[in-house]
Design goal:
Rossmann fold; two-stranded antiparallel sheet; 10 helices; Conserved hypothetical signal peptide protein; Polyketide_trans_af380; AB_hydrolase_fold; FrsA-like; signal
Length: 346
């Protein structure tokens, strides 16, 4: 009998916290070519990438990359997969790796930046707005429905890390999302409630709101440490390796390199009111939860699977930690994802 990790094993460092490295290449597996190694900045020769922008219902412009197979011919609408990035990341970190590989195998994909992050609009920058994050997926569906390359009746979603929780919230109220897969999901509401257990943590954010209202400078919190020390814990080291090294470091134009991944302190407590798993049993469309078997975030996928209705599947990747599902092409189960979306976006 498998031992279940408790959701509370994960810390806020993980919660708030990819350049193809030299020597990385592509390997052919069962006639399907995938990148290998740490491949965050993988650049496919078999896709066409278009920068796109579209507005959400609140007038905030969302930036994304629409990725099509290079062999695509007009007049043959494709199934599409919308891809959401990890918490604190941007579309250039993890999302574009998945977007290109899936597009290489016949899907149109859309990797986008959440409102307030990356190239997307919205102020204050790096705000935490769970409702807008989940709505971003429906806004992406709205947009794809206007594109002639897309079959609007065959749209799915892939949510990485925190986007797993946001996409579940979106799917509960948007039946246009036909199928959903998550990778290394973190349910940010439970995670925040686990860590913000005293009134002082909440009060600090409220006091900072007053500072910013009066014109003061923003303060950032959580995210990935900018320097490792002898006291750095394993989670901090895992995230540092991805976000602060050439493996996955990326600074959007106009952003401060030292504050990437870090949400605003004044906004962070909003996660305490976020409950995406409530009502998940009402989703009757296909769900696939992918997580590493040694990942500290594993418990979130197990909890979602336990509470969800059929059709559903929990897929454990042997020997994979949390950030392996960001960019470790040797461990990301691309074949499983391709099969899942091929079967459910017919």
């Amino acid at each position: 009998m498998k031992t279940r990790r408790k959701i509370t094993d994960i810390s806020l460092a993980l919660i708030l916290s990819s350049l193809l490295l030299p020597g990385a290449s592509a390997v052919e597996i069962n006639s399907i070519t995938f990148p290998t190694g740490y491949a965050n900045f993988y650049h496919s020769q078999h896709v066409v990438i278009q920068k796109v922008r579209f507005s959400n219902p609140y007038g905030i412009e969302i930036a994304g990359n629409l990725v099509l197979p290079a062999a695509y011919k007009p007049g043959n609408p494709l199934p599409a997969i919308i891809i959401g990035h990890p918490m604190g990341a941007v579309k250039e970190q993890s999302s574009m790796l998945y977007a290109q590989v899936l597009a290489e195998h016949g899907f149109a994909t859309l990797a986008f930046d959440m409102p307030f992050w990356g190239e997307s609009g919205g102020t204050p920058r790096q705000a935490v707005e769970p409702t807008m994050f989940e709505d971003a997926f429906s806004s992406a569906v709205d947009y794809l429905g206007t594109r002639p390359e897309i079959d609007k009746a065959r749209i799915g979603v892939l949510g990485i890390c925190a986007s797993g929780g946001y996409s579940i919230s979106a799917m509960k109220i948007d039946p246009r999302i036909r199928a959903l897969a998550t990778a290394a999901m973190v349910e940010m509401g439970t995670a925040a409630r686990t860590m913000m257990v005293d009134e002082a943590a909440v009060k600090a954010g409220v006091m900072q709101r007053e500072v910013e209202f009066a014109g003061g400078k923003p303060v950032y919190t959580g995210g990935t440490v900018t320097k490792l020390t002898a006291d750095s814990n394993p989670m901090q080291r895992e995230f540092y390796e991805f976000y602060r090294t050439r493996r996955g470091e990326f600074t959007p134009e106009g952003a401060d390199k030292n504050h990437t991944t870090m949400p605003l302190l004044s906004q962070n407590a909003k996660l305490l009111n976020f409950y995406p798993f409530n009502g998940i049993e009402n989703i009757k469309r296909p769900l696939l939860f992918i997580t590493g078997d040694i990942s500290m975030s594993r418990g979130f996928s197990e909890e979602a699977y336990k509470r969800a209705s059929e059709p559903k599947e929990l897929y454990l990747v042997k020997g994979a930690n949390h950030t392996d599902m960001y960019d470790n092409a040797d461990k990301i189960p691309f074949s499983k994802l391709i099969q899942f979306f091929q079967q459910n976006l017919r």
